[in-house]
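dumping the sequnces here before i forget
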Amino acid sequence: MSHVCGLFHRRLFNVDGIACLPTADPSRSAVLLLVREDARLEQVVRQLAKLTDVLDIGRDPVGGNAFAPVAVALRCPPPLERGADERPATADGDRQDKGGDL
Amino acid sequence: MQTNGAGLIVRLLERQGITMIPGIPGGASLPLYDALHGSALHHVLARHEQGAGFIAQGMARATGTAAVCTGTSGPGATNLVTAIADAKLDSIPLVAITGQVPRAMIGTDAFQEIDTYGLTIPITKHNYLVSSARELLRVVPEAFRIATSDRPGPVVIDVPKDVQLEAITVDEWPEPGRAAPAAPCPADDARRAAALLEAARRPVLLVGAGVLAAGASDLVRELAEAGSIPIAATLLGLGAIPARHPLFLGMVGMHAARATNLILEECDLLVGLGVRFDDRATGKAAEFCPHARIIHVDVDASELGKIKTPTLGIHADVGEALRALLADVTPRRRPTWSARVAALRAAHPLAMPGAGDVRRPYGIVRAVAALAGDDAIVTSDVGQHQMWVAQAFPFTRPRQWLTSGGLGTMGFGLPAAIGAALACRDRRVVCFTGDGSLLMNIQELATAVEEEARITVILLDNAHLGLVRQQQELFYGGRYHASRFHAAPDFAAIARGFGMEACDLETVGDPASALARAFASDGPCLVRVPIAAAENVYPMVRPGAPNREMIDEAALQAGEDGGCDAAEAM
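..and the predicted 3d for all of it:
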């Protein structure tokens, strides 16, 4: 999980929600991520696919509510009412890529 | 076989074909060193773990096979970090084995405890914290498979001391880890690429490190010659095509010959082979090859579309893609484009002032090239000297040129040269360095002497951090700060102090023959070359600017571009 979280962090791509659970096979776990659908998502998914420990990646549809039970368990408002692709950008969440001078 | 975790590591390394292991021992890796005691593995005792990491990199870069380095827990591991990160950015197969405090002490802030696994996640292709001796039977071969497969990269194996000491009986040894078969090229992609090439009137090939990793240099040359297509290279792609080849344009980007960048500006099809459109190569990416369709071939799918959106992205091994493409390409001449390329090259060649004087940048590079010959391996550090060598050294073959491209690590050159010299005993290794860079790993002169490495260190000494000084001159209004060394060491005396031969071209009467004498010596030798601080690398594209906007001395004197402040430039 630290490989997955670290990847999103160092590519400056916000993860709005994360849940990680063991599966029936003790050598495997499942990670659920809530991310914003923007132009860079495809790039991050490709980077994710390169991680040795990532075996498979699937996508729920935009606006899906996979996190709703987690929200109940955490006693916080459901995160998806606004729709995953309409969430306001946080301060560092909408950095322009490809434009920085080094 | 009865052994322990440490003995297992040594045996598994031997089975991988590893013969040398640079490193420095410490408390948490002493069991490993105890196992090395009776082994055929030659341990190269570096004087700093970063040196050990770059010695291993020199071995890996010169041979194309995975190399191993080792350090103890805590500072041993943190000192390796720069060399590991460097291997990640340049896709070098490196396996770093670190000692760790015993498992019972992990998490207690024990002496020399650091979270090596956590520290190395962002700078490795993969990493492990091993929890039992038996796990090593899987982890070590897997580490080599990962390090060498597809796009190579570094792997860290962190081994707690108690795992090194854990007794184990091995009945059956695992197969050594080998690179996965090369990723094939979809036939449809090859046909589409051939059609794009056929339709192109002004195509250019751009070769990068991926071509060297795939061993595909000959195929690139075949494609270029079949289609009369000029070839440019990234910094790390130099050597893929001999510099003297008539279709070869040299390096692209920030310090390219003016003609090379202008030819890319005019091309209508760019074929990027094993390149990643680094900002030093592309300048302002949105304005790179503005009139061109792009075919991008890379073994790493995440590179396709990362910086430039290709017309056709091919996810394949570069060699496989070229083989498929060559089957579909019809040989042809492109007289109009060839004539235009020749005209641009004649009008805007690389200016090499002082090429006849061994105490000036281009002069020393050309003189060393003539003395070293085509068989020599060349390493560099990072800075002005690196760019002068990249521009002016006539590289003739793959893996002749070893330099830190992506991370740009000062301190790379000397230890990488030692590693290359130990891995290729039949070749002389020349290390071009600067006074700023050499000081960052100068302790490895001791390693060079101890190992009798056949290296010749060419030190371009301007008592400055030259490329910083140059950017302060050009982009920060000449407000020089922290780029000049007021205390200038006597480098020849230092080298002699380490037990090396040395000469100083500033104080000898005939510098050209003194240089020739240095190349007659077989042991490690250092040559100090005094360089005027005002020497700059030209042309130069301002960081963030498009490649067509090249600054050179003529433009500065004419009042263009000069004196502009660029606060955000690095």
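The first strand of chain B starts at residue 2 and ends at 4.
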